[in-house]
Design brief:
about 70% helix; about 425 residues; mainly alpha
């Protein structure tokens, strides 16, 4: 006699309902392409409605790219440092050092030696920051603020000593400005640039906008811009595809566990902060070469905006690049005195906030949806009742964009777990 065993199926796993909310949208490459296409359609529609053709012109895009490079380099500098667990508020000071020492060498030699001097100047600032924070354990924020003050004071003193005497003075040097230096080589794709400009000037829906954007990306592109793109790709490869990057990132996530596995945490923190300083210095010398001078106050807070771009990008190079592009676009608007363009952007922001309100409502986040809808209505009314915006609003555009982006992206951020956490050698074993 055989008995047939009755097998009871295992209980089903509990279904995750996400609090009754709609499932979170997974950001994939096709989704990103769809978002870019939708953004281009909306921008083109706004351009036609408002008549503000400059918002997608090749000049505006070229200016945005030039504005994005120093911000992106500052953000990349912050990414290297913070991935190793060291907060680097001193990026502004390191950019100042890069701009000053780059110009000090550049007016006497050539732009590429200026680049080298700027990188070394910024790296020296990074070394000081590493010594203070990693070795002596000073609070990272306080050390960064002190670095910014120190860099401002040192460069002001040296400018008076170096730029106001002898040949430097005869060539236009002053306590606030270096003598002029040569430009660095730039590139234009022959034929393509002219053809894209022709298409752009027809002001067709979407097609002319795409032509203007592409035209800005292939006309008079600085060698340093190309170098910056290479550095972004190299950063991703080194930090996420090599053993060196894995060890460095482990120092920012859990340095005690990293040390217990034989990682020299101090070495990787020092390397990260010195590289961070060098990248910030490169951002500073980019500004000096772009204007042909070192000018006091030249960085204009771009070190802090770079940190905001890094946070917006969730400590990843790709997101950082998008954040830097956004801030560079806003910077280009105010530099080109784009009152009409900023006025058109009021309508664009209203449409984007309306779309955000609809998405939040779909996600059953009713309070954020109501807030977004309220701001959309206010911006639409502002646009409808005015023909332009005050110059003060135009000049504040980059900083307003910084606040808006940080406020809207804060919910998805995940910083390295040990970022800014004090560490002492020997804690891991």
């Amino acid at each position: 006699m055989t008995a047939t065993a009755t097998q009871t199926p295992p209980p089903a796993a509990p279904r995750v309902t996400n609090g009754g909310k709609a499932p979170r949208l997974k950001i994939t490459f096709p989704v990103i392409l769809l978002m870019i296409a939708a953004a281009l359609i909306v921008v083109s529609l706004v351009r036609i409605i408002t008549g503000a053709n400059d918002i997608t012109s090749d000049g505006q895009i070229a200016g945005a790219l030039a504005g994005a490079v120093p911000i992106g380099l500052a953000g990349l500098a912050g990414l290297w440092s913070e991935r190793a667990g060291v907060v680097n508020i001193g990026l502004e000071g390191m950019m100042i050092l890069g701009a000053f020492f780059g110009a000090a060498v550049g007016w006497q030699t050539n732009p590429w030696l200026a680049v080298l001097a700027g990188v070394l100047g910024g790296a020296a600032g990074g070394l000081v920051h590493a010594i203070v924070t990693v070795t002596f354990g000073v609070d990272h924020i306080i050390a960064g603020v002190a670095m910014n003050i120190l860099a401002t004071g040192v460069t002001a003193y040296l400018a008076k000593r170096w730029f106001t005497v002898g040949e430097a003075a005869s060539k236009g040097g002053s306590p606030k400005q270096s003598p002029p230096m040569d430009s660095i080589k730039s590139f234009t794709v022959p034929g393509l640039s002219h053809w894209l400009a022709t298409v752009e000037n027809h002001h067709w829906f979407l097609i002319s906008d795409i032509a203007g954007i592409l035209g800005g990306l292939v006309t008079h592109i600085s060698s340093l811009t190309i170098l910056t793109l290479v550095l972004f790709v190299a950063t991703f490869f080194v930090l996420w595809r090599t053993a060196f990057g894995l060890r460095l990132r482990s120092c920012g996530e859990n340095p005690i566990a990293a040390e217990s596995l034989g990682v020299n945490v101090y070495f990787y923190k020092y390397m990260a902060v010195i590289i961070s300083g060098g990248l910030a210095g490169l951002g500073g010398v980019f500004l000096a070469i772009g204007t042909h001078f070192y000018l006091a106050g030249q960085t204009g807070g771009r070190g802090y905006i770079g940190l905001a771009a890094m946070i917006f990008g969730n400590w990843r190079p790709g997101g950082l690049a998008m954040g830097a592009g956004l801030f560079g676009y806003a910077d280009s608007l105010q530099l080109r005195n784009g009152s009409s363009s900023v006025h058109a952007l009021l309508l664009l922001l209203a449409l984007l906030l309306l779309a955000m309100a609809a998405w939040k409502f779909f996600r059953k986040s009713y309070v954020p949806a109501a807030v977004a809808l309220g701001f959309a209505v206010l911006l639409a009314v502002w646009y409808a009742l005015t023909d332009s915006v005050p110059d003060e609003v135009v000049q504040a555009t980059p900083y307003v964009a910084t606040l808006l982006v940080m406020g809207l992206s804060a919910q998805r951020l995940r910083m390295p777990k040990a970022d800014g956490v004090p560490y002492r050698k020997g804690e891991g074993g």
